[in-house]
Amino acid sequence: MQNKFKNYLSFPFNSSLVFKATESLLNKSPGGYILSFHDLSPEVFSSHVESLKPSIPVPLNELISRYKLGKSIKNCFAITFDDGVKSTIKNNWEICMKNNWPVTFYLPTNYINGDNLPFQKIELFESLLKNENYKLPKTSNSVTERILNKKKLINYLNEIIYVKNNQEVEEILNYFLKILQTSYGLKNNKDLMPKAITWEEIKQISKNELASFQSHSLSHAACSGLSKQELENEMLKSKRIIENCTGKNVNSFCYPYGAPKSISKLSVEIASKYFDYATTLIKGRLNKNSNLHYLPRIDLYQDHKASFARMKVALS
Ligand SMILES: [Zn+2]
Fold first, then answer.
1. What separation in Å is there between the alpha carbon of 12 and the centre of ligand 1?
2. Does 126 lie in the same domain as 101?
């Protein structure tokens, strides 16, 4: 459904009475929840959080420990931001500090170390590649040599990042980055993609009790495409790297892409070994059947009006 239409549908939720009534009618009120944000402006972010009153943000750790102890989590939610984009973190952190809102930032550590995220590379291809046909390269794991037009190529790339092993994904993405360099003469492709927050900035922000930095893996690879060894590496190494920077405990993991097809049973098992809990992007609230290593979240975006944020929360 078009976002414009969804925003339009959510018009009644401009009334906080409708919001509260829907929540209690659907018996959703007792369930605390975790919000997931990506890139969005501080104005939209604060309008979303403000719209959820009387519910208030609590630290993610507190939400989970209350849930584990069977205490009430009514009117409680936690704020999380994924991916470590510098401008997103810095601008929205300002808002969190101003309002005293606890926040968790999930970091893919290779991105902080200079490797752009797979979907950022695809966004670059989408904006720069000409409308032509492209031959897919042969890779170690496939012998297909298909020819795709630009639109199909972008769809194909957006599909494989959700499920395939990152070695194979990297090979294909680097092949197209090379095309940009050789055929288009593009030199500084990094400057055209969103900058990551730096370790120094993470260290500074983490000194504040309101902020928590947690693991979003090393490479932002889909867990379902990884072997046991690779999963151990992605989870344990990223945990250690962040702990070394902040000097604080990293006890939670956020599955890259967060969709069921991107999360294998094996990855849930390994996350259970290293983390107290792990979060997905499967929509929902905490309830008595929640699996601590497969927690739902409610994702909100820049083009959502505050009324739509309310509607999504009330229906989740
Ligand atoms: Zn992510």
1. 32
2. no
